[in-house]
Amino acid sequence: MVYTRKDVSTLTRAERQRFVRALLEVKRRGEYDEFVRTHIEYYVADGEDGLRAAHMTPSFLPWHRRFLLDLERALQRVDASVSVPYWDWTKDRGTTSAPWTADLLGGTGRASDHQVTTGPFAYREGNWTLRENVTDTRFLTRDLGRRRDPIKLPTKSDLEWALKDPVYDTAPWDSTSAKGFRNKLEGWGPGRGSASWRNHNRVHRWVGGVMVGGASVNDPVFWLVHAFVDLQWSRWQHRHRGARYLPDRPPGQSSPQHGRIVARHQRMPPWDVTPDQLEDHSRIYRYA
Predict the structure, then answer these.
(1) In this model, does residue 195 exceed pLDDT 80?
(2) Measured between alpha carbons, how far is residue 262 from residues 13, 55, 236, 243, 246 in Å?
(3) Is residue 214 a contact partner of residue 38, using CB atoms and an 8 Å limit?
(4) Which of 214, 242, 244, 274 has the fewest CB atoms in 10 Å of its CB?
(5) How many angstroms separate the CA atoms of 121 and 138, rounded?
(6) 238 lies in which domain range?
(7) What number is the average pLDDT over the span 102-125?
């Protein structure tokens, strides 16, 4: 049966409660920390050796689509009615609007150490201790909007800049690709600092705290961000009918990207699935 992913700002009080309860139960069972470990393991950058499956690579979108599906299935084992909502950061742009309410994800961190002290995922509630992290921090941290060096969330025009590109991805298939929908949405730009962070990357920076880096899954907003990213891929496909995931074939042995990226029909670790098999989600879920 096809289920629906909704805009988080439209969830009823009961839907919010069921989503939070399911997340907390997945965490209590120890399953959630497995998702954190997986994301840390596959957070491989351009400058590192080996295959890049999750970031700075064409498979950024199908990798996170499958990752989201795995989390969603874990939630549905707790409560079959639950799906991952999406956060439209072009519309809900405040630090106190959805999803930053006390009955959902809680708010920003306190000034001294960025520790989140409100909502069900606050450390003091006793249900959300960080056990897998790139630091020894045990509590959830955020710095919404970055107090000391403020940045703004991406706008509708920022998304449109990505969506209007008719090509999925282009060589050199990494964070330096100047053309192609994938990197424009993932958001690696030239230069340094805030001007180089576009769309998805800028949202991670805007949230701050643990959302900056490989352990970003520790913040439940990670899933809402990537559900909205996934929605943009779906919208791009509808706009550019017939456009497919690229590259369709692996780079040759003479290419610097040989063995470093996943082509359309290649297995995408850690799963036995290809990007080709993940291009169409219509038989699994839809977006409201």
Answers:
(1) no
(2) 41, 11, 20, 17, 9
(3) no
(4) 242
(5) 12
(6) 3-287
(7) 97
Helix 60-78 and helix 221-239: axis angle, to 10°? 130
91 vs 267: CA distance, rounded Å: 36
3-state secondary structure string across 224-250: HHHHHHHHHHHHHHHHCCCCCCCCCCC
State the total domains in the chain. 1
pLDDT tens for 138-166 read: 999 999 999 999 999 999 999 999 999 99
Residue 117 CA to residue 110 CA, distance in Å, equals 7
| 84-96 pLDDT tens trace | 999 999 999 999 9
Who contacts 18 (Cβ-Cβ below 8 Å, separation ≥6)? 79, 81, 82
pTM: 0.98
Helix (H, G, I), strand (E, B) or coil at 13: helix
State how beta strands 3-5 and 285-287 pair.
parallel
Domain of 120: which CATH number? Answer: 1.10.1280.10
Report the distance separating Cα 125 and Cα 130, nearest Å: 13
Residue with tokens 């920390």: 33
Separation between Cα atoms, residue 68 and residue 79, nearest integer Å: 16
Phi-psi region of 180 (alpha: psi -120 to 50; beta: other; left: phi over 0): left
- Omega before 154 within 30 of 0, i.e. cis: no
Q: What is the spatial distance between Cα 181 and Cα 275, in angstroms, rounded to a whole number?
A: 15
List the Cα angle 218/204/246 in 5-degree steps.
Answer: 105
Which residue, chain included where needed, has tokens 């069921």?
18
